[in-house]
Amino acid sequence: MSGGEARPSTSVPRLGIGLPYFASLPVELYQSGLIDFVEITPETICRQRPTETAIELEIVPQQMEKARSTCAGLPMVVHGVELSIGSAHGWNTAYLEMLDAFRETWPFVWHSEHLGFQTFLGADGSTQEVGVPLPLPPTMEAADLVARRSAMILQRYGVPFLLENPAYYLPDPPSDPEIGDDIGLMRRILQRSGSLQLLDLHNVYCNAINHRFDPFEAVDRMPLDAVAEIHIAGGSWENGFWMDAHDGRVPEPVWDLLEYTLPQCPCVGGIVFEMLDEHVPKLGVDAIQQELTHARKIWTRRRQGDSNGVTRLSDFARTVSTCP
Amino acid sequence: MALLDFQTSLVRLVRAPNGSDSLQPVSLTADERGYLSDLTEDPAFRFTVKVQRSWCAGRAAKAAYLTLSILPGEVRDQLLEEWVSCGGGTHSFVGRESTAFLEFIASHLVEPSHELTICRMELAALRSSEGSLRFKRPNLSRIDRRDCFVRRGHYAEVVHFYGEPERVLNALTKREECPAISSEITTLIFGPGFDRLYTRATSNELALYDRLASPAAAIALSGEGFARETVQKLLNGGVIEYVG
Questions:
Q1: Which residue of chain B is at minimal alpha-carbon distance from A175?
Q2: Do A171 and B45 touch (CB under 8 A)?
Q3: Contact predicate A8/A160, CB 8 Å
Q4: Is A124 contained in some domain?
Q5: Are A66 and A26 in contact (CB under 8 A)?
Q6: Which of B6, B11, B87 shows the shortest C-beta gap to A137?
Q7: Torsion-angle region of residue A33: left (phi > 0), alpha (psi -120 to 50) or beta?
Q8: B-chain residues within 8 Å CB-CB of A241?
Q9: Burial zone of A49 (CB within 10 Å; 0-12 exposed, 13-18 middle, 19+ buried)
Q10: What is the ipTM of this complex?
Q11: Residue A214 CB partners (closer than 8 Å, separation 6+)
Q12: Tally of domains within chain A
């Protein structure tokens, strides 16, 4: 990370290939040797509990027990979705309180959140949910807000904290020239906070298609020495947009992006194949195993120092030309 | 543009893209207002709105799964559309979404109707299931104390079926012809302490539940003709509970 004001305060262990925890998947898959670590979204084993003054997030003990027994022996990282770290009016403190309790029972190697916001201040002054995550504008105010909160999180948990680059469909939000775009926003936050990046290559691919830019050039501008984890996933076409739907196998151009990017990320600790729980039955265990095996081949080759000479522009151009 | 104003404006536009007053209460310059107005014409913005509505409809559909599954397709779609249009479907946790959406659906169904009964049953099952996670069997000997008061359980509900419950449920879920609305009512009583979260209520149990619309001294109930066993059964089922 060049020109940084803060450095990552904690090191990232090399874990390997990861899979999200889904209660619906067979236990054997998690114990098959295809997976080196598991990524858990704690909210999926929680429920909300209204109190007199707030709404708390409560871990459901039976679900926690099942998750732990399924993932027995595997290192675990957390991938949260409810923090809303970029909401100007305030973030979700109930999430952090739940994460405190979660860590007491099941310590995580690192944890991550999405760079964006999904709550806002309603007309009555209460916090309301948007219903979908939205991106932050690349402004100094947004960068400094998230950097301040990220630094607090790093201090609170003492393990690496990662921010994920989002997929977005909205065009050109208002920006400050010092920041420029979403890559500049991520860079400034990481520099200011000492947090790291969860580089979601499917999100980069999605944005590149929908906003018509070259994803390899975008990767070249990213702070790759601060990438601690990489996500790969599948998507699908809808209304002329490539959706970050997590509903299928990894598209070939995303594998190419992984081949290209991985050797340039010196501190990356793992690659996770993401999908949504509701699409797991359609995808099937065999396909999941094949995606994990494919990711491992690239991971292993990278460890052996072979970058495999990925063709950059031609594959992506071919993909865009097949847009419906 | 301040981040708070940007987020407020953007969310209002996404949640109500055709609302004329979306930007009114927010302090924006003319340029900022122009940017946001232009945004609404952009296909990518319209796609964002579509994604938001689709996510909300998906959450709501899961949140009232049983009730929606027994309604005719056009009624189901209409309810989902109206619910999302008035800001529903945004809760990321199914419990809150279910309660709010089922209450919304109930307000749109005919009274009495089998569909409304199923809607209330889904709501009752949800509440008692939620209560079962922290339900503790009460100490039944307390009912003999003079200072012991009882009331309706926080997670209890009664649901009236205008026909034999199994027949009604079978007909609705298999999309067969429903039995006619009967004047003979069967009541299920839901409580977090029951093994299956409900039991078929006897007339005495129902009378006790009705009696406890406001709290009463436990010791006085026997004087009003309520059997000790009935009080104990409903306490054990979480249908009634101690005050304090």
A1: B1
A2: yes
A3: yes
A4: yes
A5: no
A6: B6
A7: left
A8: 44, 47
A9: middle
A10: 0.89
A11: A208, A312, A313, A316
A12: 1
**Contact (CB<8Å) B44/A241:** yes
Torsion over CA: A240, A245, A248, A251 (sign): positive
Q: What are phi and psi of A26, to 5 degrees?
A: -65, 140
Residue A117 in contact with residue A154, Cβ under 8 Å?
no
**Structure confidence at residue A51 as a pLDDT band (50, 70, 90):** confident
| CATH assignment at residue A235 | 3.20.20.150
Does any CB of chain A come closer than 8 Å to the CB of residue B61? no
On the question of pLDDT at A309 being above 60, the answer is no
Domain carrying residue A254 = 16-320
Q: How far apart are CA A283 and CA A29, in angstroms?
A: 14
> Which tokens in the block code for residue B175?
């999309």
What are A228-254's pLDDT values in tens digits? Answer: 999 999 999 999 999 999 999 999 999
What phi and psi values does residue B153 have, to the nearest 5 degrees? Answer: -70, 145
Can you tell me whether residue B198 is helix, strand or coil? strand
Q: Is the dihedral of CA A143, A145, A146, A150 positive or negative?
A: positive
Give residue-wise pLDDT tens across range A248-288: 999 999 999 999 999 999 999 999 999 999 999 999 999 99
Read off the tokens for A36: 């080196």
On whether residue A2 sits in a domain, the answer given is: no
Contact A301, A308 (CB under 8 A): yes
**Residues of chain A found within 8 Å of residue B48, distances taken between Cβ atoms:** 132, 134, 168-170
Does A132 contact B1 at a Cβ distance shorter than 8 Å? no
In the structure encoding, which two tokens stand for residue B137, read together?
């069997």
CA A231 to chain centre: 6
CB contact under 8 A, A174 and B52: no
CA gap B64, B99 in Å, rounded: 9
Subunit contact A46:B89, Cβ cutoff 8 A: no
Closest Cα in chain B, distance from residue A2 (Å): 27
Residues paired with residue B149 on neighbouring β-strands, in sequence order: B217
| Other beta carbons less than 10 A from residue A256's beta carbon | 22
- Where on the phi/psi map is residue A235: left (φ > 0), alpha (ψ -120 to 50), or beta? beta
Interval B195-216 mean pLDDT = 96
Contacts of A87 in chain B (CB under 8 A): 7
Task: Quote the CA–CA distance of B205 and B189 in Å, as a whole number.
Answer: 9
* Whole-prediction pTM: 0.88
A190: in domain: yes
Please name the residue ranges forming H helices in B64-113.
Answer: 65-70, 73-85, 94-106
The reply to whether A3 falls in a domain is no
